[in-house]
């Protein structure tokens, strides 16, 4: 599945807040999904609880990878389902299996980076986003997410500024370009973002592909 997810961030100046979204990238035939926030776990319940229907889907996909450990598409699908059900470490591990089969996948690197960030592993998250942007210099999701982690978590606003400026060089009129521009304005005004995770769109139905 090909997911472009946005990791949420809030840029504040004194008491003013600007809410944006960090990008996540779900894999499906390399076509990006639209970017949109989901502010609560689908199906309700506590974070970490299975989303309705996904628990059975997870079990089915686990059986696929047990029988075919080199099925990269199934590993990505499993990582996406763990992502959607807020099982962060399991998502990281599933994405890692996919990356062992194809290490230069900017979308999977980005999704795994989002999970690293939610686990508090900010250096690993930044490293994933940096690698994704090197694999694909026009991958705006990884650049945007890198800026969020640098500005908010690692307290390196000038490096964040560089990441967001690259987005404006690629496509300033895009939704991510608009968010990057707003984030840069807040940095110029002395504010700093505080990110919050945003769930991605659910994966499209269909069998996992190699």
TrEMBL record:
Residue ranges with Pro residues bias: 199-210
Transmembrane among keywords: yes
PROSITE patterns: TPR, TPR_REGION
Keyword Membrane: yes
Repeat region (TPR), residues: 72-105, 106-139
Spans through the membrane: 6-24
Keywords in alphabetical order: Membrane, Repeat, TPR repeat, Transmembrane, Transmembrane helix
Region (Disordered): 179-210
Pfam family membership, one: TPR_16
PANTHER family recorded: LD24721P (PTHR45831)
Name of the protein: Tetratricopeptide repeat protein
Taxonomic classification: Bacteria, Pseudomonadati, Myxococcota, Myxococcia, Myxococcales
């Amino acid at each position: 599945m090909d997911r472009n997810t946005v990791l949420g961030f809030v840029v504040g100046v004194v008491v003013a807040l600007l809410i944006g979204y960090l990008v996540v990238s779900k894999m499906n035939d390399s076509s990006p999904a639209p970017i949109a926030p989901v502010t609560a776990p689908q199906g309700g319940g506590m974070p970490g609880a299975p989303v309705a229907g996904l628990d059975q889907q997870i079990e089915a996909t686990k059986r696929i990878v047990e029988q075919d450990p080199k099925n990269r598409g199934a590993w990505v699908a499993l990582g996406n389902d763990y992502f959607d059900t807020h099982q962060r470490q399991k998502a990281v591990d599933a994405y890692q299996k996919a990356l062992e089969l194809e290490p230069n996948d900017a979308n999977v690197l980005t999704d795994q980076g989002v999970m690293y960030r939610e686990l508090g592993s900010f250096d690993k998250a930044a490293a994933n986003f940096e690698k994704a942007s090197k694999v694909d210099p026009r991958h705006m999701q990884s650049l945007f997410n890198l800026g969020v982690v640098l500005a908010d978590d690692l307290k390196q606003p000038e490096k964040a500024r560089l990441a967001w400026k690259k987005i404006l060089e690629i496509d300033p009129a895009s939704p991510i370009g608009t968010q990057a521009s707003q984030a840069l304005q807040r940095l110029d005004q002395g504010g700093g973002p505080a990110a919050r995770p945003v769930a991605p769109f659910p994966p499209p139905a269909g069998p996992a592909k190699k």
